[in-house]
Structure formats: structure tokens, C-alpha cells
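Could someone model zinc ion with this protein?
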Amino acid sequence: MNIEEKIKWNKCKNCGFLQHTTHLRCLQCKSDKFESIEASGICKLLTYTILNALPMEFRDQESYALGVVEFKNGVKALGQLANKDNLKTGMLLQPIYKKICNDLNGTEVYSYIFKPLE
Ligand SMILES: [Zn+2]
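Reply:
Sure, complex below.
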């Protein structure tokens, strides 16, 4: 449970396009040469939504906020936000690796959530 999964993106060595690591070729120029870029530091909230119909895994919660954030090096991530109130696009957040729920087998699931900086 201490395995921290880094938030990673692939940066195209040919055109610099940033994209998710699941794509084998650059969506922009079709190159297959990438360097791996890790998210680091604080990030900015680009957009968010409040989910009221949650997946079964979150059966102990009524709702949560889901946001898209962008780090300084251009890495973007989608994740749960630490609170639902006082959210504003453009605000600064800090990623925290923590348990977010138990899956349907009761196994603890860890992921990044994003917490507003005070
Ligand atoms: Zn490219």
C-alpha cells in the first residue's frame, strides 16, 4: 500500500505533444518516441463537477467533487477533490496519495486526491 503511483504522461519527442501513456503513437504527429513526464508540485484546477450518483465502491459517501487539474509542466490529471465546497477554477491544489475507498471485495483502494492549498 506504499506503492505510490506517479501521475505520468508521455511527451512526444518529435512535436512535444503531451498525452496519456496508453497511446502508442503521438495523437498529433504519429511519432512513437516519447519521454515520460511526471507530475510534480502543485497544480491548478481547470474544471470540476460534483458527482451525486457514485460508483458502488464509494457506497459510504453521498457525493464528491471530481476535477481536472494541470501541473506546471503541463501534465494533466483527473481526480477526486478533497472537498466539495469553496471550489473555484484556477485555484491551486496539492496532490495527496491516500485511501479513497474499499472496492467491492473490501480491498482498500489508494489514489491521488487533490486538496486546495490554504
Ligand atoms: Zn508528436
